[in-house]
Amino acid sequence: MLPSDLLIHRSYGESLTPKALPLDDNHQQLAAELIHCCQEHRGKPQGELDRELTDREGHSPDYKVVRGLAHILRGSFCTFEIVSPLEPGELRQRVFGRSAQQLPSPTNTASLLEQIALELTQELDRPVLPDEIRQGLYADLPENRILTQYDAPSPTALIHRYNLSQVQGIFYRATQVIINAHRNDPGEYKLLFRYLKLFQLMAYIEGDADQGFTITVDGPTSVFKASTRYGLSLAKLLPALLHVSRWSLTATLHHKDSYSQEPKLKRFSLKSDCSLVSHYPPGKTYDSMLEESFVQQWQKTKTPWQLEREVDLIPIPGSVMIPDFRVVHPDGRAYVLEIVGYWRPEYLRKKFAQVRKAGRGDLILAISERLNLEKAGVKTADLPAQIIWFKDKLSPKAVLAVLADGAPPP
Predict the structure, then answer these.
(1) Whole-prediction pTM value?
(2) Fewer CB within 10 Å: C terminus or N terminus of the chain?
């Protein structure tokens, strides 16, 4: 995605329209030149590539477009790594510690580097040259990292990625996003809902699979303190939404006027027949760090209970619940596990209202101790669910303890 300073949006009344590059010969040629530039710098320091890409901006009034395309290439298609015989900090300590014991001179420096290169050759059991020592001393600086892998996109793919990133930037300052997912294949609903869970978005879902769903997502400027991380999570939802067949979207935006610098509310609309192209593989899901850690720890646990991520939606009056996991025993017992991590008073109240409406005796709620439930006016005592409290990580042992003590679900 693009940083805020590379976003190009035009304001028309109350509407905001992001920049979109056409797939014409001029832009295809520009994209091809930048792609080739990165290819030529494979195996070279990032600083050299950055300088070359900056030179290509020239004095063009469209320098932001060139810079944006270059940013996407570096961030999404290039892999930069630290290349050094030792960790640069350890290497500096060895070289500078030894050099402090002798008088500074070109001859002494060359001799010292040769000595250390010989030592490292023996320690690492591979040839190490003095030049590798020089280059490795500050290899941890961003400009000295080496471009080791480059998955070159096609010019068309790069332009599509740029146009998508411009639209994603709209959501950095959203106060609310309303998605109308019209009647679709149930599998598409499920995939969309799982992405909502994956990116930990505070969403309220109304409707049913027959008529479609209205999904209201809180934006990053609607929480107590505007969160850049949450804004990025919301922006990441768009490529997933593009895999749904029929939908429309309306976003309310907190936009700073370029002339008065005063904040104003703007609107942005998008439909499924737009020309945007997703780079997400269809059907692929990604774990949050919390879920990933939980799954990894569960796999190390010796238990007959099986943890499943493919969970059916739980219908409730006027909405639907999307549990994170299902825990199944070979004897047929099964529970669903819901992890509650984000907090906002209204969101928490609606979340726990959903739990009450569901009336499920097989529901386990894992709730972060960092949530201020008292401030949200939420009481857990009357919830028809078993509660697990956790701090930074959810422990499988805590879940298994509830499963061991709990009665068989109805």
Answers:
(1) 0.71
(2) C
